Sequence to fold (851 residues):
Amino acid sequence: MRILLCGMVCLGLVAPACAGDAATAKQLAEMQEQIRALSSTVKTLQAKLAAQDSRTAASAETSTKGAGDSGGDELEATERKLGYAGDAAPAPAKAAVTESAGAAARDDLEALESRLGYSGGVDSGRAAAAAAGADRPPVPTRATPYAPTGGGGGGGGGNARTYFNPLISVIGDFVYRDTHLQEGVTTGQDLNPITGRPTNHVAGNANDNKLDFRELEIAFQSVIDPWARLDVFLTMPGLNGDLNDTATAVPQQQIEIEEAYLTYTQLPWGLVLKGGKFRPEFGKENLTHTHVFFSVDRPSVITNFFGRDGLKEYGLSLQKSFSLDKDNRSILELTGQAMTDVSEDSPFSGAFNHGMLWLGRARYYHEFDDSNNIDFGVSHISGDWDQLEQREFDVTGLDLTYRHEPIKGGVYHKTLARAEYLRGERDVTGFIQDPVTGRIDLSKTTENPDGFYALLNHQFQRNMWVGARYDDTDAALMMARTASPDGVSPGFFINHSRIAGPSLWYEYETTEFNRFKIEYSHHDTDFAFADNRRHDDALFVEWTVTAGPHGAHKY
Amino acid sequence: MRLSLFLALALALPVVAVAQPRFVTTSSDLYSIAKLIGGSEIQLENILPSGQEPHSLPLRPSVIQKIKQAQWLVTIGLDHEPWLPDAISSSGNQRVAPGAPGYVDCSRGVTLVDVPSGGVDRSRGDLHVFGNTHYWLDPENIKLMSVTVTKALSDAVPAKRDEFRNRERAFLKDLAAREAKWRQALAPLSGTKVISYHASFPYLAQFAGFSIEDTVEVKPGIEPTPSHLTQLIDEMKRDHVKIIVMEPWYNRGRAEGVASQAGAKVVVIQAQTPENVNILDNYDGIVKSLVDGIKG
Fold:
């Protein structure tokens, strides 16, 4: 403004010397007059600004506490303190004229000193940077506590790399097991003819009466870039290994990949793409990591249908959620997954070749209010159980979960009720050998194992839970090739053993990172291939510890 | 003819209205401030219902969906909401991730108290690693929060900047007037020793002038052991501590048990503004609870 005025003044002074005629001289004289008027106006405004500055400086020093001063001065003062002063420029003139060169300079200096943490008195650069009005304070992540103090706002360039470390957590799951078989019933009658393992989930073995870790899980979780995050869960099964396993007491302490997947969350239409190794999204309990069970063990129907540790496959997953109402209380989630079966002793491979699996799931979630919600899902997975003959095995599941999590008192009381029903359809066209009579039946083309569980888990104190579950399931893994009458056509052996019984548990935690659980279960096994029924009792004691910021599991 | 038809259709098309920006708050106190200043210019949703313990929220699909749809996420910040990073990550909404334009951290400018020194690990319980996060219980910090919310609103709807700032001025004026009354009402409580159930009230204590001697929880987020309760009762008797302050979502029965043995009383503080209530009206209630509870 001043430069423009000076230029105009100079032009006005110089112009007459260059003017040639009277008309031009007259115009120049008029211009000079206008310039003098403008100059006078500018001086008047400057005087007013200076006067306003001195009044503002005086009022800024006055305590605003209880003073009832106008919200306007206080607003501007607070905005300057928080570093928002620049935004006030286009606002009402009153706000604009309260800024003076001197006050702005002081604010800028104080802002810089606070930003660098020189204002003192406050621990870490974080609060100082926030008070100075820096562009957004450093992100408070779970990794930040391990960053050096003062590393938030300003210094420690070398240590800044630690901000990009993944979240690392370690979870130890220790189990003591004691099982009691019914007298007179030997383990030989319940071995899976394919795997040599017993059909039910409890059996005495050399691992009884020992405390050992069932699993050590190490998790690495990190945002990779603006579009994807990586989650890796490594597990090291311990001596106890699988609670269903009655193999000899051979240590299994080798690292396995529980899950390792990349998730893209920035796709169009809100799609979420996941790729890698993951637990297929079938129902609820197949998704659950061992240390997150309500009970000590996984429900029998899951282990009997999907293997001792459930399904874990390599593949791609695509998911989309829809809000069905404006309050987001009803949500529909659709999932489609294409996978290669790599699970141990899954019904889709077992002793046979690994093939493709296809999964679809629809999940409906509804909140009745802030304290009660229901979650209903339908899942279907399809694959070939016999790759050579391309014989299909499809499993359809229904799951229902009800949660009561009261707003007030929810710290101390919560209740969850859940049930899952699975039904399989397996192509067994060919020679089917009756397990009891040994006769070959050519008419049977499909067989339909099914099973369910229902559980209730109740928190009655901040750190105590009780729960119960009932299992009733076919031993759906029981398939084996047998010799057929003609020696050429395939023959199959189906074991229709059925396992049923209740489990009860109690959980106590000192904190959510240190939990103890004790479970008693009783199961009856009806063996179809032998006129025999076995009653098993088992006692489990579990200790689970978590170190590090383990991310939340799916709700 | 075709031109006429085209013009007719073009004119018949409804004028596309500019959608209101969608603000999502992580507490009912922030919701109240955003509603008072933002008014009908924004769409507003809240995640944590009033009365719910704020540090542990299950990541329900509804929570994820709200964050997914948010254009502005207004938070208490620091590590007050430990569930929030997972929720934002699950939502995939980068616009409201920490540091992004839509992430509004209302801890900006707050002078933190109870900033931990020394090593930070879980032996100290669920420690707030940056400092205590319950800062909205000091009216001076409500002022800062409201200015930050106003800034976000102004960034979201620049055309309504003047209107927001006028409402903010009115809010600050109301706050200043009430603050004077609160100070007057709380003056007799200065120096009173209290026990708090959870470490929630250092800012309130700072404003109201009472001192927090200990907590019922043995460590933040950890329920008391029998030995800690015995020790606490002895301490209360010895130091003549007659008040236990607590939020409504903690175990009142346990607090009453301690109070009865120590010859004290329990004062419940509505530390979260109820739905559709003005945060300043709620603070009136907090002051009344304190005054009635401590003096009565």
Q: What stands out?
A: The domain at 172-547 of chain A is CATH 2.40.160.10 (Porin). Chain A has seven helices and 21 strands.
